[in-house]
Amino acid sequence: MNAVEHDVLTTAAAQAGPAPHGEVIPWAADVLRQGIIAGRLLPGTRLSETRVSEVLGISRNTLREVFTVLDGENLLTRVPNRGVSVARPGADDVREIYRVRLALETSALRWTEPAPQPGLRAAVEAGRAARERGDVRGMADANQRFHGGVVELARSVRQNELMARTLAEMRLVFFSMHEDPSFHAPYIERNARILALFEQGRREEAAERMHDYLAVSRRRLLEVLEGPRVR
């Protein structure tokens, strides 16, 4: 963990505030998780037990439990005799992530009563503004906000928690696309179209568009990770 990553964790811990009584492990796990979601802790980053425990103000034994939680979420990788590092998701991880996303996002659109969605509209507009600036990170952030917001339509705490973990893992996947505006830009208007269909009460069409959207995104990611399929 270098000085930048040290500062990232220090800032994230300060923003999170003190750990609630009896909830040190989930608090510390969320600090690390938010660092990953924000794209500040990059794939392959080595996490020193000594330095991370000092930054978070927790014991190394407690930190090991935190690492176990995030390892279970596929956000960290533990290698014997080599320590802990931020995960590098592969093709199989992408396939599993998209199975989860398909279930969560299409069902939220299909079964939620349509209504104006200012939060989703704001995410679309943020994506458009980032595209105009050529801000790749901004486009990725807006896209994450949009898809997280879609799942929130279902008003399920458990589904929101699962999507938050999934989006954190997606951040690691998308890092390989970080400098490529052509990957993120086309999805902004797809988001806008899905939102318009939903707000018009055309829920099934919105769900079908989301299904197609995610299929295209999955295929493009797998082409990067595995190479184009030979026809």
Structural features, described:
By secondary structure, this protein is mainly alpha-helical. It folds into 2 domains: 3-86, Arc Repressor Mutant, subunit A, CATH 1.10.10; 91-226, Four Helix Bundle (Hemerythrin (Met), subunit A) (Up-down Bundle). The chain has helices at residues 3-16, 24-37, 49-56, 60-72, 91-111, 118-133, 136-152, 157-174, 181-199, 203-226; strands at residues 46-47, 76-79, 83-86. Helix 1 packs across helix 2 (24-37), helix 6 (118-133) packs antiparallel against helix 9 (181-199) and helix 9 (181-199) packs antiparallel against helix 10 (203-226). The chain is globular, with a radius of gyration of 18 Å.
What would the keywords be for this entry?
231 residues; single chain; Arc Repressor Mutant, subunit A; mainly alpha; 3-stranded antiparallel beta sheet; Four Helix Bundle (Hemerythrin (Met), subunit A); 3 strands; 2 domains
* Total of DSSP H or I helical runs spanning 4+ residues: 10
**Which architecture of the largest domain per CATH?**
Up-down Bundle
Low-confidence stretches: none
> Total domains, how many?
2
Give helix % range.
over 70%
What proportion strand?
A: under 5%
Q: Which class of the largest domain in CATH terms?
A: Mainly Alpha
Radius of gyration (CA) equals 18 Å
Judged by helices, strands and strand pairing, the structural class is mainly alpha
Q: What is the rounded distance between the termini?
A: 43 Å
Strand order of the largest sheet: 1-3-2
Order of secondary-structure elements = HHEHHEEHHHHHH
Query: Could you give the count of β-strands?
Result: 3
The third-level CATH topology of the largest domain is: Four Helix Bundle (Hemerythrin (Met), subunit A)
